[in-house]
């Protein structure tokens, strides 16, 4: 009804336009962005979304290069379970106390900053693992600058190591490998490097470009050198931010504390956050009453790449929500309220993920250049065979990328990666495990499973030619 009024056509016509698209709708129903576009086109209108994407309402202004200053890198530690992620984070946390400051890091606030002996700083996200990393990314937040991927030298490049690598690569985040547990007599770092080389990741000692260092998270051997390499990588990235403006950044975690109210750990990514600032964060807002660092010390302001825990929000935003300091308190509250409303009307989707059925149409529209695929199979042989065949389907108009492949069931982590990278998931003789199917439905991720290689290739080929008959 709303859209009919805007276009000045009878609502019945809009309803029948929807019906011709196979959608039975009522007058009060909200249409998703895509349907709206198609329906409006029928009546000769172009749709421009302004309020639906509320990020737009807090738009970024172009930065003057003179205002930019160097900032510390933000690092996430990933890797296979038990390879030593937590041990490494703990070691770094304990060893790198800023000189002259009392005590080590006592609070777990989800992120911490350390100052190395040479005075340089690094900020770590304290929730190890690629799931947390990609969950944030699926929410549109790219916080990590560099990924440390920990591999135990007495073990192997494991499935989750491969996942971590794919997740970092899909995000375009450079990797520094920490070959861990080198104190163990059974450690064989060269074997790990060889395995990495076989995956096209040639580390420096092997003449490649990928940084890696042998460490022991237990004894601390090599950790300083590892961090040096992180800083080298960071120099190449030329990480910069303008500290002299209203702060913006990302929520790392948030919870309700019985005594203090809502506590949120945030990572300032640009500008400087000050006590007293009015903050809009996801669907919540509030005036900052107090800020603390990871040592539990009260601080008055926090610049770029600094993690801080803040008090004063009127609710707990989700990890990955962006925050922004607003000058107009009323406007901040309005946007927060609007977001809450949109959240309730879950039918409103501004961005849907790609499905095989849609590919042909999207290619025809000319706005689709790369098809991202996550491929899971029961055995290595079929995964490799399918990879080769899929890659060969690339045409001049559209490039096929396998952003992650592996042996095993389709997991929630695969679905998150698909959501963050707008990919379709193809399973060969494997099915979604655990809650992966549920999550895929929620995130609207297309999962296709096959048991005949030929069918999988043909479906993809047909999809790319816009000829795929809808899945029944
Ligand atoms: P995570 O699952 O990746 O976080 O791994 P943890 O940090 O929990 O480590 C798993 C196990 O490996 C623990 O028992 C650690 O004590 C042990 N560990 C971690 N790093 C090292 C290391 O450098 N040397 C040795 N010998 N053991 C380690």
TrEMBL record:
Keyword Protein biosynthesis: yes
UniProtKB keywords: Cytoplasm, GTP-binding, Initiation factor, Nucleotide-binding, Protein biosynthesis
GO cellular component: cytoplasm
Main location (coarse class): cytoplasm
Domain spans labelled Tr-type G: 70-238
Subcellular location: Cytoplasm
GO molecular function, one term: GTPase activity
Binding-site residues for GTP, renumbered to this chain: 79-86, 126-130
Family under the similarity heading: Belongs to the TRAFAC class translation factor GTPase superfamily. Classic translation factor GTPase family. IF-2 subfamily.
Functional description taken from the UniProt entry: One of the essential components for the initiation of protein synthesis. Protects formylmethionyl-tRNA from spontaneous hydrolysis and promotes its binding to the 30S ribosomal subunits. Also involved in the hydrolysis of GTP during the formation of the 70S ribosomal complex.
UniProt name for this protein: Translation initiation factor IF-2
Organism: Salegentibacter echinorum
Lineage of origin: Bacteria, Pseudomonadati, Bacteroidota, Flavobacteriia, Flavobacteriales
The gene coding this protein: infB
Residue range from the parent sequence: 360 to 831 of 931
């Amino acid at each position: 009804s709303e859209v009919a009024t805007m276009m000045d056509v009878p609502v019945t016509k809009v309803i029948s336009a929807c019906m011709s698209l196979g959608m039975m709708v009522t007058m009060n129903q909200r249409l998703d962005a895509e349907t709206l576009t198609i329906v409006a086109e029928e009546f000769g209108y172009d749709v421009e979304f302004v309020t639906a994407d509320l990020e737009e309402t807090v738009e970024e202004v172009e930065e003057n290069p003179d205002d930019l200053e160097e900032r510390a890198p933000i690092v996430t530690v990933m890797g296979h379970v038990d390879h030593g992620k937590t041990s490494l984070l703990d070691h770094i946390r304990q060893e790198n106390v800023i000189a002259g400051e009392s005590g080590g890091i006592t609070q777990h606030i989800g992120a911490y900053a350390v100052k190395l002996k040479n005075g340089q700083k690094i900020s770590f996200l304290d929730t190890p693992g690629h799931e947390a990393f990609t969950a944030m990314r699926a929410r549109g937040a790219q916080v990590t600058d560099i990924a440390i991927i920990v591999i135990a030298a007495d073990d192997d490049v494991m499935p989750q190591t491969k996942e971590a690598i794919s997740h970092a690569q899909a995000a375009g985040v450079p990797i520094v490998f920490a070959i861990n547990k080198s104190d163990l007599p059974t450690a064989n770092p060269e074997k790990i490097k060889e395995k990495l080389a076989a995956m096209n990741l040639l580390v420096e000692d092997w003449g490649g470009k990928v940084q890696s260092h042998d460490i022991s998270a237990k004894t601390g051997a090599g950790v300083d050198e590892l961090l040096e390499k992180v800083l080298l990588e960071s120099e190449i990235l030329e990480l910069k931010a303008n500290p002299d403006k209203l702060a913006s950044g990302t929520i790392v975690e948030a919870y309700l504390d019985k005594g203090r109210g809502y506590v949120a750990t945030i990572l300032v990514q640009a500008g400087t956050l000050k006590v007293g600032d009015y903050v809009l964060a996801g669907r919540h807002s509030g005036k900052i009453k107090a800020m603390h660092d990871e040592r539990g010390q009260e601080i008055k302001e926090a610049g770029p790449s600094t993690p801080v825990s803040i008090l004063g929000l009127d609710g707990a935003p989700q990890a990955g929500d962006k925050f922004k300091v607003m000058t107009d308190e009323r406007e901040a509250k309005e946007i927060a309220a609007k977001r809450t409303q949109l959240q309730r009307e879950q039918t409103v989707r501004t961005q849907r993920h790609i499905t095989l059925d849609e590919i042909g149409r999207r290619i025809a529209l000319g706005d689709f250049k790369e098809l991202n695929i996550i491929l899971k199979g029961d055995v290595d042989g079929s995964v490799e065979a399918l990879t080769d065949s899929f890659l060969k389907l690339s045409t001049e108009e559209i490039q096929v990328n396998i952003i992650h492949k592996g042996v095993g069931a389709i997991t929630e982590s695969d679905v998150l990666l698909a959501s963050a990278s707008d990919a379709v998931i193809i399973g060969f003789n494997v099915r979604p495990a655990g809650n992966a199917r549920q999550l895929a439905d929620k995130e609207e991720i297309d999962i296709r499973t096959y048991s005949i290689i030929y069918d999988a290739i043909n479906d993809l080929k047909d999809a790319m030619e816009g000829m795929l008959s809808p899945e029944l």
